[in-house]
């Protein structure tokens, strides 16, 4: 039997991430976290990236050794697309807002992406005239359409389908159908709409809750929809979010720190944001099974966390040593 290549092994590790109970938060309401940093390139975005590339291959859009994938992204989608596309034989160019953490940019460079920086806010904005990253990626790709493919996670149905076909079924199976509430941060809306759609087919009373950060936030990967238009992918299914929470930077960081203190989990800031919202909801419930999405771990965020006084440098070093359930990643520039 042929032995599997490293590429195949990494690609096979997309999805099927662990769901763990957060025992120090569970009481009459059980609280579980879906640890999306177990994906091979370290975030929930591996799912969307893989599905978008496979979809383009199926449609005959991509040609190995010739095509270049270009995408505007604030980090995780770029890391996922670069890592996965390289394994599958494509080059990648990323258009990235300059405020994205230096660790993220370094990872992208290490993985072999060509980077274009813009002065956009933390996330590329979808509204016309405020979307430099999106506009620049469009301009580069439309000049040479035979070479460039822009997956455009903000409109690509394969992003939604990734979660309808993988994350949703996993949450259902891992809770033995007992999930009552599902929480996810809102970026493109792929996670919340895809998972909600699947879970509601199984049990229409399951509540899907979208979490957005405050205006002028510091939460990489998420967006506030009062200051940024809702991406088309999200807009057309926005009724799949039954409820919304808006969480401040301070609340997000407090929950991030507390997750380390109570659970020894070193999470990314969007996980803290989602956790803060879930805890508000849990306070109103008498029972149930709440699932929160932890989109990435905290290792890329040393500079953010020390600048915002979430952790001092030495606390962060200690957290790196003591944190449980961190995985080995195929890039070594973090920590
Ligand atoms: C860290 C993080 N959390 C959450 C999200 C939101 O996921 P989605 O785009 O599926 O709404 C993203 C998206 O980039 C992210 O990077």
List keywords for this structure.
binds pyridoxal-5'-phosphate
Total helices: the number is 12
Order of helices and strands: HEEHEHEHEHEHEHEHEHHEHH
Q: How much β-strand is present in the residues?
A: 15-25%
Averaged pLDDT:
93
Instruction: Tell me the radius of gyration.
Output: 19 Å
**Largest sheet entry:** 6 strands, mixed
Poorly predicted regions are none
- Protein structure class: alpha/beta
Distance between the termini: 38 Å
Number of extended strands: 10
Ligands and ions found: pyridoxal-5'-phosphate
Strand order of the largest sheet: 1-2-10-7-8-9
Percentage of residues in helical conformation: 40-55%
**Shape assignment:** globular
Please tell me about this protein's structure.
The chain has 335 residues and is of the alpha/beta class. It is 41% helix and 16% strand. It is built from twelve helices and ten strands. The protein has helices at 6-12, 45-58, 76-88, 102-111, 132-143, 157-174, 190-202, 232-235, 249-263, 269-282, 302-307, 313-322, and strands at 19-21, 29-35, 68-72, 91-97, 114-118, 148-149, 181-185, 207-213, 243-247, 288-294. The protein has a six-stranded mixed sheet. It has a four-stranded parallel sheet with strand order 5-4-3-6, with helices on both faces. α2 (45-58) crosses α3 (76-88), α2 crosses α6 (157-174) and α6 crosses α7. It is globular and about 55 Å long. The termini are far apart. Bound molecules: pyridoxal-5'-phosphate (PLP). The site of pyridoxal-5'-phosphate (PLP) has 19 residues, from α3 and α7.
